[in-house]
Amino acid sequence: MRTHDFAVIGGGIAGASVAYELQARGSTILLERERLPGQHTTGRSAAFLVESYGNRTVQRLTRASRLFFEEPPPGFASRPIVEPRPMLWIARSDQRQRLAEKTKLAVETGAELHEVDADEARAMCPVVREDYAVSGVVEPNARSIDVAGLLDGFLRGFRARGGEIVTRAEVTGLERIGEAWEIACRGDRTHAGVVVNAAGAWAEVVGGLAGARPIGLQPLRRTVITFDPPPDCDIRRWPCLIDADEDFYLKPEGVQLLASPCDEIPSPPCDPTPDDLGVALAAQRIQRATTLEIRPIRRHWAGLRSFVPDRGPVIGMDPERAGFFWLAGQGGFGIMTSSGAARAAASLIVDAVLPSDLEASGLRPEHLAPRARS
After folding, report:
1. Is 167 within 8 Å of 11 (Cβ atoms)?
2. CA 210 to CA 174: how far, in whole Å?
3. pLDDT in tens, 104-148
4. Residue 266 CB neighbour total at 10 angstroms
5. Domain 2-63+147-216+310-368: what homologous superfamily?
6. CA-based, 20 to 30 A from 159: which of 65, 77, 277, 284?
């Protein structure tokens, strides 16, 4: 029988990052149902550090993560975690007001954004069609994130601190016994004072095992494709291009271009596969907004992004199940908020308060807590 202070369920970026933080505060075990951590959503993400994305809570957590990504602890990573990649939001004439509203929200919470006209937008990304974009907004300090490097850094750091990782360890039972949880998985039993539910698309399933009420989590399938740029076209300095309504995004990915139609198809928690409609939609939306011709498609895949109804993260102790902590609902922002969210979770678990920098940003525990988010 293993006994730990904390047990984290789920080895994606949420679980790996909070396990890394918790191991500095007590004995922690990380339980992952698959053969390798990060096999599902984390391993399929094209992640950015974008302070203008999401609601105020998301933007504050993103900002709180920036310093860690840009200046990770010694030995955390062998190469930079982030690289400069400006974000260029473009708007058709019917989208200008919505883009202005998004810009206002982001600026109010501290994001640096600059308005550009259509010519300036095309100077940054020359394939934008003249009859599509009439204006744009640039976030010059956006970054591309090395997802594999970040996940590996958290896992390696967790092990270096003495943490234990168990793979092929699907949790099949959770029972509160006295002041601890008994966790059944892979024929073994583990005891922990606190269970952290970082199971991604399976978080509601894990919550059900603990007898917790549902939080309204819905996994949504998203499609991604890659394809070749035009011959003799230098894409290295292109920004990440995104539509004002998030109907698509496009970014350089090595020597190829990566794109998504930003589709959100309700799905059960599973290992998703892309369908022909999602792939076709990606090509259609990119070709509508740009002069690019997408053929052939080199790769395509799908991942799940899980949201609760208000699209904010769920980070807090369950109000009815003592010692059961939610770290879920990270949707499309889990990687870029991972450091801030993990620090918030660890501090709430151990000290019942948020870290001082997050408090200073205006974030409060009630903004994050299950069924009590603003």
Report:
1. yes
2. 5
3. 989 998 899 999 999 999 999 999 999 999 999 999 999 999 999
4. 8
5. FAD/NAD(P)-binding domain (3.50.50.60)
6. 65
